């Protein structure tokens, strides 16, 4: 029986691990992730969940306070505008749904200053591949932006809405997406 003891011990260890005896590190990581999610939900920042789709559009799951939507786009509705109060803190969480490679389809969220020329910005962005399609010489025209998100990725940015009432355009700066209609308006009122 003693010559089988090492095998029996290994078998018991495998059984305990397979039956939920996860490591303390794994349990601690899961607890930290749960706490982070709960903290984000309780931090008082209005979070808007946006999805970037292959049709080069910003979409949301449905109507909610403070956003205006348009046509139905599959399981989503087109995001047309966001309304904010002056100085309101807003978090944009953008998820890209795509099976295409990142070089062909990725999205970001770029909020421009009120008097920015979005077309000129998008044209310059198309030449700024090495800077995630953010033209370095036009960064003074940006209020906030996310990184690029490829299919299955989520990025976010938290910013304070401008104090000055008016319309501020937001776009995706990936080449061709702004001209394809991937844009909307943040209305501060």
UniProtKB/TrEMBL annotation:
<feature type="compositionally biased region" description="Low complexity">
    <location>
        <begin position="24"/>
        <end position="41"/>
    </location>
</feature>
<feature type="region of interest" description="Disordered">
    <location>
        <begin position="22"/>
        <end position="41"/>
    </location>
</feature>
<dbReference type="Pfam" id="PF00127">
    <property type="entry name" value="Copper-bind"/>
</dbReference>
<dbReference type="InterPro" id="IPR050845">
    <property type="entry name" value="Cu-binding_ET"/>
</dbReference>
<keyword id="KW-0479">Metal-binding</keyword>
<feature type="domain" description="Blue (type 1) copper">
    <location>
        <begin position="96"/>
        <end position="189"/>
    </location>
</feature>
<dbReference type="InterPro" id="IPR028871">
    <property type="entry name" value="BlueCu_1_BS"/>
</dbReference>
<feature type="signal peptide">
    <location>
        <begin position="1"/>
        <end position="20"/>
    </location>
</feature>
<protein>
    <submittedName>
        <fullName>Plastocyanin/azurin family copper-binding protein</fullName>
    </submittedName>
</protein>
<keyword id="KW-0249">Electron transport</keyword>
<keyword id="KW-0732">Signal</keyword>
<keyword id="KW-0813">Transport</keyword>
<keyword id="KW-0186">Copper</keyword>
<dbReference type="InterPro" id="IPR033138">
    <property type="entry name" value="Cu_oxidase_CS"/>
</dbReference>
<dbReference type="InterPro" id="IPR000923">
    <property type="entry name" value="BlueCu_1"/>
</dbReference>
<dbReference type="InterPro" id="IPR008972">
    <property type="entry name" value="Cupredoxin"/>
</dbReference>
